[in-house]
Design brief:
One of its GO terms (molecular function) is transmembrane transporter activity. By secondary structure, the protein is mainly α. About 75% of the residues lie in helices and about 5% in strands. The chain has one domain (about 1-120, about 135-280): ABC transporter involved in vitamin B12 uptake, BtuC, CATH 1.10.3470.
């Protein structure tokens, strides 16, 4: 029983990390119709910014302030990328892909040039390295932290999308961008806001991912982005709730299959799940079926 509880909560923690990355990615594609391959760079920026600030701050509020700094850096980079690189290319999808892929590669190279290619030890708070007894299982506190933050982020995103003016514009733009533009609403501001929100969420994922893995490295964002894309496709493009469902499914599947099967079997099963969803419901579990 203890093993099952541990695997379940560890899988939910991994799924929470995937959700933090995928939710912003899904919003960006749903509204702006941009496959942002530079999203992993936003995560790496948040991780390294938190690592840099965490090494210079101390006391009980040192780490939370460092995380806020990482989130702010991720949001700033996300908004800047939209304004400078993506905005001139909205009607040129091929160039969008090339620019975001190139930016991702350049960002990894820049991080390697600044801090080297080797992983850096992460300044995690002591309490995140301890365990909490849950139903007979000793669960690492960093997993519980990820789960709690993901729940709060999901609730906050849903409240923002349903009860604020910009949230309603984003939801309407995901459903029918041409109609929103015809009503005289400046969708470009919503695009920048969505990129900033996506960058902030990726920065938060990078900050907490450092706690999860115990280190940061330049290629960490790119490796996590692969599973984030899988989560977005399974959940349905533009659906935050769908991304949450898919992230839970992917995280649990990876943990249980990797434990009871051979090493790496969980990743294969995740790809198989993606293939099944694409065959049975191409729009994703929470997406609209094609008509």
């Amino acid at each position: 029983m203890g093993t099952v509880v541990l695997l379940a909560l560890t899988g939910l923690g991994l799924g929470a990390l995937y959700f933090l990355i995928a939710s912003g990615l899904s919003l960006v594609f749903g509204l702006a119709d941009v496959l942002n391959f530079a999203h992993g760079l936003f995560l790496s920026v948040g991780a390294y910014a938190t690592w840099w600030a965490g090494g210079r701050l101390s006391g009980p509020w040192g780490f939370p302030v460092a995380v806020l700094f990482g989130v702010a850096c991720g949001a700033a980079v996300g908004g800047l990328v939209e304004l400078v690189l993506i905005r001139p290319l909205y009607r040129r999808p091929t160039e969008q892909v090339l620019v975001t892929v190139g930016l991702s590669l350049a960002g990894v190279a820049l991080l390697q040039a600044g801090w080297g290619a080797d992983p850096r030890r992460y300044p995690s708070p002591q309490w995140t390295q301890k365990v909490t007894r849950v139903l007979g299982a000793d669960v690492p506190n960093d997993r519980l932290l990820l789960i709690g933050v993901a729940v709060v982020v999901l609730a906050g995103l849903l409240a923002f999308l349903r009860f604020t003016r910009y949230g309603l514009v984003i939801r309407a733009g995901v459903e029918n961008r041409a109609m929103v533009s015809a009503l005289g609403i400046d969708v470009r501001r919503a695009f920048t806001l969505v990129f900033a929100i996506g960058g902030a969420l990726a920065g938060l994922a990078g900050a907490l991912g450092g706690v999860y893995f115990g280190s940061v490295s330049p290629g960490q964002g790119a490796s996590l982005l692969i599973f984030a894309f899988i989560v977005v496709v399974i959940g349905g493009m533009g659906s935050v709730t769908g991304s949450a469902y898919a992230a839970v499914a992917v995280g649990l599947l990876q943990q249980f299959v990797n434990y009871y099967g051979t090493a790496g079997a969980g990743d294969i099963c995740v790809v198989a799940l993606l293939a099944v969803v694409l065959l049975v419901r191409p729009a994703g579990i929470a997406g609209r079926a094609a008509t």
